[in-house]
Amino acid sequence: MNRRRFIPLALFGVTAAFLAVGLTLDPRELPSPLIGKRAPAFALPLLHQPDKVFSHDEMLGTVWVLNVWASWCVSCREEHAALTALARAGGAPVVGLNYKDEAEQALAWLGRFGDPYALSLYDREGRLGMDYGVYGMPETFVIDRKGVVRYKRVGILTPEIVRERILPLVKELQRA
Amino acid sequence: MPRFFLVFLSVMTAFSAFAASPVSENPDLEKRVMALAEELRCLVCQNQTLADSHAALAIDLKNRIRELLREGKTEREVLDFMVQRYGDFVLYRPPLRATTALLWAGPFILLALGVTGLIVWLRKRKPPEAGVIQ
Fold first, then answer.
1. Closest Cα of chain B to A47: distance in Å?
2. What is the ipTM of this complex?
3. What band does B18 get if pLDDT is binned at 50, 70 and 90?
4. Has residue B21 got a pLDDT over 80?
5. In what order do the strands lie in the sheet with A119-123?
6. Is this structure's pTM higher than 0.80?
7. How far is A89 from chain B (nearest CA, A)?
8. Could you say which of A127, A149, B31, B63 has the lowest number of CB atoms within 10 Å?
């Protein structure tokens, strides 16, 4: 009969365990349905040369990184240093997707903080952003040689994520 | 005073109707857009439907739904379009899958546990002695 005394304690333990797990999950981080699937196709003008259209199949055969940003996105400035480090590491070209922005402001932003991108796509209407399921900028994708999305990060890149997740993944994909 | 209040109320109601007036000229289409928007979650403000939200992304998505319907897509195809991009999470009524099974079955499991517990407890309880009730 004495065991009964521990029932409330056990219930408390179970509740606490559920809450502990629940509180450490980030509801903003959604599993991307794009992982393992072909990256959405595009043909978009370049931010620096609006008369030139760049299409997705020009990236086939290369492991590359797509980074979605805008000049109005405050956290994009926060990840700028880590993103620049990623671009400098030279593992994979970083393509910028300038999302729902004014070209003039976007160019001024790059001029002011430095341009880490191998090239920048200009998505004025946010159409391609929608195809990539962008909902919380900045967002970063790693895409393999065959054009399949292998990794997605919603939110700012940190030096740790670049060093421990992205660069090793790029290396691994390049060997494959 | 009550009369003033009535006038005020009717004016405000009229304005709210004005504010909610359909964006496109076709009320049937607008009804379909809104019905779909009620089914979809706003990704930026996760506890709101697309219909409730005024976030920039929600507005873009509502416009996209309108476009897709105009192109002759069915309701099912529009929902698929959203799921392909944002995952099952955009649906307010998630489909039954291995990953969502607990979500669907959980309440019934809890109910069954509760009922079993109650039955066990009731059976164990000694019937009150005759002398108690008098």
1. 22
2. 0.78
3. very low
4. no
5. A119-123, A94-99, A64-69, A139-143, A149-154
6. no
7. 30
8. B31
**Same-domain pairing of B91 and B26:** yes
Give A87-135 pLDDT, tens digit per residue. 999 889 999 999 999 999 999 999 999 999 999 999 999 999 999 999 9
* CATH classification at residue A170: 3.40.30.10
Residues B53 and B101 in one domain: no
Residue with tokens 């007036």: B21
B103 with B91, same domain: the answer is no
In a domain, A116, yes or no: yes
Same domain, B84 and B53: yes
Q: Considering only CB atoms, which residues of chain B are within 8 Å of chain A?
A: 43-44, 46, 56-57, 60-61, 64, 83-89
| DSSP label of B41 | B
Provide the pLDDT for residue B19. 46
Cβ distance B43 to A131 less than 8 Å, yes or no, reads no
